[in-house]
């Protein structure tokens, strides 16, 4: 009876110690989760622009580095949790094999031992499942944040590209206008071609002139394959280069 009482007391102490260790591990994991949440919140605030930073490029690099660091830590925790689940499954298989071997020898453990083992395993499984769900939620949040940041980066690159295209088109228009009407910087108001310049650019300053010019052009709209005409060109038709010196002299 004394031996049984001593074994029961030791078993209770072991269970209490395991519960204490599990509770301490849970509290430590909660603290780590709070720290990760703080990092995620800080990186998200950087991504939204809530925190003042010096230089957009530096802010983007800090955001990506912080997000990658947190994501790497979450993935490591997921791998550790998966490994612990595999260890639990291995322990269950090992105990089952040992019970079968002991049963063949006529030795059977008491039901209380089976119950204590199953309770402890279920408690650990529940804890690991909770951790797995927490890590998956954190990973989803990080992925959403990173995808949003990548989308913002793609938008910024697209805006830069569109800005360059607009500047290029504007430069082409200026060059074309310079070829047609001369350089505006060197174009005096009393120049001989000033009336022609005013005439061809009147649609840019008058809606009535624009409507009238468009009406005149619409009278000659034909399909591209029409045998008696051609469609209106999308821009200015630049003159061809002089074919002889006399013509070049006249152009100059």
Automatic annotation (TrEMBL):
Coiled coil: 147-175
Keyword rRNA-binding annotated: no
Biased composition (Basic residues): 1-21
Skewed-composition ranges (Basic and acidic residues): 22-41
Annotated segments matching region Disordered: 1-41
An example Gene Ontology CC term for this record: U12-type spliceosomal complex
A Pfam family matched in the record: PDCD7
Keyword vocabulary terms for this entry: Coiled coil
Stated name of the protein: PDCD7 protein
Natural source organism: Ploceus nigricollis
Lineage: Eukaryota, Metazoa, Chordata, Craniata, Vertebrata
């Amino acid at each position: 009876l004394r031996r049984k009482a001593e074994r029961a007391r030791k078993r209770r102490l072991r269970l209490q110690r395991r519960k204490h260790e599990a509770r301490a591990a849970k509290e430590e994991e909660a603290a780590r989760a709070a720290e990760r949440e703080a990092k995620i919140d800080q990186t998200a605030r950087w991504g939204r622009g809530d925190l003042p930073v010096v230089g957009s490029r530096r802010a983007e690099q800090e955001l990506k580095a912080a997000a990658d660091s947190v994501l790497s830590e979450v993935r490591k925790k997921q791998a550790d949790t998966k490994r612990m689940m595999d260890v639990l499954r291995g322990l269950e298989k090992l105990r089952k094999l040992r019970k079968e071997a002991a049963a063949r020898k006529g030795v059977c453990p008491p039901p209380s031992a089976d119950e204590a083992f199953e309770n402890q395993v279920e408690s650990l499984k529940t804890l690991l499942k909770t951790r797995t769900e927490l890590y998956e939620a954190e990973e989803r949040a990080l992925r959403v944040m990173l995808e949003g940041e990548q989308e913002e980066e793609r938008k910024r690159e697209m805006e830069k590209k569109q800005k360059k295209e607009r500047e290029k088109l504007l430069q082409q228009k200026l060059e074309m206008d310079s070829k047609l009407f001369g350089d505006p910087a060197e174009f005096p108001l009393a120049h001989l071609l000033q009336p022609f310049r005013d005439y061809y650019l009147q649609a840019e300053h008058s809606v009535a002139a624009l409507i009238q010019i468009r009406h005149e052009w619409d009278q000659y709209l034909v399909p591209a394959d029409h045998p008696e005409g051609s469609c209106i060109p999308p821009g200015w038709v630049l003159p061809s280069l002089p074919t002889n010196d006399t013509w070049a002299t006249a152009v100059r």
